[in-house]
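Minutes, project huddle
Topic: does the predicted pose make sense with zinc ion bound?
PN asked that the exact inputs be recorded in the minutes so nobody has to dig through chat later. Recorded below.
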Amino acid sequence: MLVDAGRVLVAPTAETLAAGEVVDCGGQVLLPKFIDAHCHILPTGLDLLKLDLTACQSQEEVLEAVRDRVAITEGWVLAVQYDQTKYPGGRHITRDELDAISCSRPILLRHYNGHASVGNSAALEAAGVSESTSDPAGGKYGRGADGRLNGLLLETAHEFVWERTPKVSREEMVEAILAAGEKMADLGIGMAADMMTGRFNLEDEVWAYREAARRGCRIKTRLYVQWREVFGPKGVGLQRLRELEASLDEPEQTRICGIKLFADGAIGSATAAIYGSYSGREANGPKVTRHGRATGLAGTSGQLIYSPEKLTDMTKVASDAGYQVAIHAIGDYASDLVLDAFEATGCADRHRLEHAMILSDEQIERVQKLNPFVTFQSEFLMRFGHAYRLQLGEDRTAKLKRSRSVLDAGIRLSYNSDRPIVPGDPLDGIRTAVHRPDGFDAGENVTLAEAVRAYTVAGAAVCGDETLGSLGAGEPADYQLMSLSSWSALL
Ligand SMILES: [Zn+2]
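Predicted holo structure (C-alpha cells), as shared on screen:
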C-alpha cells in the first residue's frame, strides 16, 4: 500500500503483492480501521465522567460504590452499568436503600441496557415524580408490594427522569466527544455513527461535534438525529435540520446521516416487543395477525414505543424528507413492524434495521426481499447471555443474532458496538461473532474475514460512506496495524 497526504495511492491488493511490492510491517497485520456504525459517541464520553458499576457483583457492592461516590462529589450521583441480573437473587436495588445513603442528593443508577434506572427519593422529587404521578405512555414507575414508588424506572419513565438531570454544557459536550474519540481511536476505530443525536439538545450537540472535529477529534463522526428532535411537536423542523447539516462544513470528518427511531425496548428489561411471552409470564400484549393470518402464537409481549400505524407514519415523514431511517427493533414482533414501515416508504433498501436480535426464517426471507441494511452487536452475546436466558430461556437465547443465516441470505449485515452499553472493543465483537459463546448456536458463527468485513467496509456502507473501511486507491488511508498475537487470538 502506498500512502500520500492521508490518501491511499496504491491499494493493498493481491496484484500489488504479486508485483513484489511487499513491505514488512514487522509481523503486524494491516487492516482498515474499524467502523462502529451504531454507537453513542457523546454518551460514551459523558459516561467516562460517571460512576461505573461494571465491577460490582452484588447489591451491597453497588451501594458501597454509590456511598463512596457521594462522599467525594457534590450534586447528582449518576451511575452507569447497573445490572440487577448479575446480583444475588436478581433483585433490584430499591429507592429506600438509596435513601439510606442520601435523601438529599439525587442518585440515579442506569441499567446497562439503557432502558431502565433505579433512583432515590431526591431524584424522583427533582424530576417532579410523586406517588400520585401516573405512568407515562410507553413507560412505568415501579411500585413495591405496598403500592409505593420503589425507585424503578422503565423506558419513557426512565427517560423522563434522566431528562431532568443537570444540563450538559456545550464545552462539556466537546470534551466528552474528544474523550470518546480518544478511547475509540485507541481501539482501532476510524469512524463511528452516533445513533441518538439530539438526546440532550440537538443544536448544542451538532455544534459540539463540529467543534470536536475542528479540535482534531481522532475519529470521523456520523450523526443519526432523533426523530422527535426534528419532526416532533418541539422539534427544530426540517428547514433547521438542513441548516444544521450545512453548518457541518467538513463532511468527511462529521456529518448528519439520517434519522433514528425506536420501535421497542430491550430483552434484559422484558420490554423488547416479541411474539409469545417472556419466561414464566403470560403474554401481555395484543394478539396480532400477520398479512391476514394469525401468527399461531399466544399474543405478544414487551413494549412498543409507538403504535404500528404511528411508527409507519413517522418513518414515512423522515424518509419522504430524503433521510435514511434507522430503527431500533430488538424483538421479532418489533422487527416485523419496522419492516412494514420500511415497506411503506417505497425505498426499504435505503433504511437500517438496528439489532433485530430475534429473527425467524420467514423474517430473514422478508428482510432479504425488502433489503434494508441490518446491524448486529455480537458483543451483546458475550456480555448479556445471563439476562437473555433469564428472560427468554435456553432455546430462544441460542438463536439470537443469526449472523450466518443473515449473511447466507445475502443481506447487508454490519457489526458495531452500541457503546456505552458495552465496553465496545471491536475485537470482542469480532471474536464473539466468529466463536459464539456457550449457549449460543454455533451454527450461526461466521468466518473471521466475514466478521472483519462487517466491522469495516460493511459498517461504512450502512452509513453511506463508499470510501471508508476498504483502503481502495484514492480513499482515506484509515489503516491500522494489529499485532500478530491480537490477530491470532481471533482465529
Ligand atoms: Zn443504540
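Observations noted during the meeting:
- Residues 38, 40, 195, 418 surround zinc ion (CB under 6 Å).
- The chain has two domains: 76-162, 172-488.
No decisions taken; revisit at the next huddle.
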